[in-house]
Design goal:
It comes from Leersia perrieri. One of its GO terms (molecular function) is hydroquinone:oxygen oxidoreductase activity. This is Laccase. By secondary structure, the chain is mostly beta strands. The protein has 3 domains: 124 residues, Cupredoxins -  blue copper proteins (Immunoglobulin-like, Sandwich), CATH 2.60.40.420; 197 residues, Immunoglobulin-like (Sandwich); 198 residues, Sandwich (Immunoglobulin-like). Helix content is 7%, strand content 38%. It has a 6-stranded mixed beta sheet, with no helix packed on it. The protein binds CU-O-CU linkage (C2O). The site of CU-O-CU linkage (C2O) has 11 residues, from strand 5 and strand 31.
Amino acid sequence: GITRHYDFNVEMANATRLCTTKSMVTVNGQCPGPELVAREGDRAVIRVTNNVAHNITLHWHGIRQLRTGWADGPAYITQCPIQTGQSYVYNFTITGQRGTLWWHAHISWLRSTVYGALVVLPKLGVPYPFPAPHEEVPIIFGEWWNADTEVVVSQAIQTGAGPNVSDAFTINGLPGPLYNCSAQDTFKLKVKPGKTYMLRLINAALNDELFFSIANHTLTIVEVDAVYVKPFTVDTLIISPGQTTNVLLTTKPYYPGANFYMTAAPYSTARPGTFDNTTVAGILEYENPFSPSAASFIKSLPLFKPTLPRINDTDFVTNFTNKLRSLATAQYPAAVPQSVDRRFFFTVGLGTLPCPANMTCQGPNGTQMAASMNNVSFVLPSKALLHSHFTGLSSGVYASDFPVTPLSPFNYTGTPPNNTHVKTGTKLLVLAYNTTVELVMQDTSILGIESHPLHLHGFNFFVVGQGIGNYDAVNDPAKFNLVDPVERNTVGVPAGGWVAIRFLADNPGVWFMHCHLEAHTTWGLRMAWLVLDGSQPDQKLLPPPSDLPKC
Ligand code: C2O
């Protein structure tokens, strides 16, 4: 591989959407930020310089960071933030993976405007396991707030309530014509008839899983989270925050000049009023070989618009996710751990904290909103966990006692317990090098069932099973798929259900795992694994780079 150098300058820039102008944090003045392109086997060297008044870190979402956790990026987990006026060089090699990933800020809510595509092409001369597309196009879903998102989140924290929902969803930064004062800000994908395009879909939205469809066209799913899947064709797909999906779109032979909407709108089972149910639209625009007057007539015709599933259509989501399968070929094997060293069961859900004395809280019954795994609402430390581990100075920073027994069992998807309070803590779960892990994550009904897109840093995992209702430890494992389960880095814990994943802990370091709905992460739906060094020299975490920021 070669080395790819990038300069990412974190700087303020003005943007106007929905007739509102705001100054916001960007990389190089752009939102979405610059696309990072490399090939499998390349080294990426990204110099990030902070020219804004906020602390910043960047995360390379889905990059495994084998032994280079120092470059992973979550603030206070693998590094202290880059302070104003400082820089830090993220330096990592992209080993054994190719496909669509993305990068984003990993501190507070700055990822609302600091994100971009990270495209890893196959090694030179290695084809895709499907016919080469005519063109490849990143399609990044985001969210736009008229207000400053740092103000939105700090108000939410100060009132113990849920944050305000966004004012619009966006495609490549543009809300599109279904919002007021927005038609001029519409993403247009210009296509030729009879060609195949590969869309690299990325859900960078903060708080919403999204349905996506293009009117009168089908989409063939070929990859999720930078892992090839057995192709299948749909009208509509679901993509959760953190996830990426490559689809092939074959244009019609004879639609010259016609236009079709592509739309995305949320999937959510949260109680009405707590989610955003607006729709972003872009336009698929066929090239027009006609005279200008014929062309403008065609442009004046109404556009075809897709019908998306209803907002709480969990059946659609279950059906779709059940279709995802690894390729599992000789060239792209599915290395599913067939035996398990350690089994875990985590409850995943919402909860509350007693209202602090100095606050008036707007959560249920005057409490502070919280979220937890196994009843622990994770508190970010003031020093980085990885450095504390590496230097052996963990006291006062973290404890290694993440509870492996969940809150006392109840009917997780039925009537919730009366006590909704959770505990706070900075607790890690320690794994020996090369441990095979099976983890069942169970949604709870506390304050309502809801799907949680859980993201694991540092690893891909296999989704060996999922179901609705309570996990049945006696009968469900017999149904696990250990042959061709989908391999990914972010999975939805089904609303009112459970998901089972397996992974091999072959990457020493401290690895964050959290709900990629930013509101839930803020409320504490997060934890970290500590994977110890192996005995061989190439099984150890590398030492930190000399420019690693200090807290
Ligand atoms: Cu894409 Cu920890 O995040």
